[in-house]
Design goal:
Cell growth regulator with RING finger domain protein 1, 4 helices, zinc-finger, single chain, zinc ion binding
Length: 96
């Protein structure tokens, strides 16, 4: 889950980002559960929401190379990770 157990301010920020992307908290967990692969490299797990188009299609490795969404070609004004790298690594270790 994207919402952290730390401060209320961080929880509010996380919720705000999810709302701006048009996602609910339960949808934020979807990439790991669905095993979606990055549309560019086809290897990495999708972890980034691109705004304003709201496409969730890039992994941590590919997101830095795109100024336009690879799905709709709209300019990316902002983006955010659904899961932090530490959470991703911790969950990956659990499955091994």
């Amino acid at each position: 889950m994207i919402l952290s157990n730390s401060s209320p301010e961080l929880k509010s920020t996380d919720r705000s980002l999810l709302e701006r992307a048009g996602l609910s908290e339960s949808e934020a967990d979807a990439p790991e559960e669905n095993g979606k692969d990055c549309v560019v490299c086809q290897n990495g797990t999708v972890n980034w929401v691109l705004l304003p188009c709201r496409h969730t299609c890039l992994c941590d490795g590919c997101v830095r190379y795109f100024q336009r969404c690879p799905m709709c070609r709209q300019f990316v004004q902002e983006s955010f990770a659904l899961r932090g790298q530490r959470e991703h690594d911790r969950d990956r270790l659990k499955t091994l």
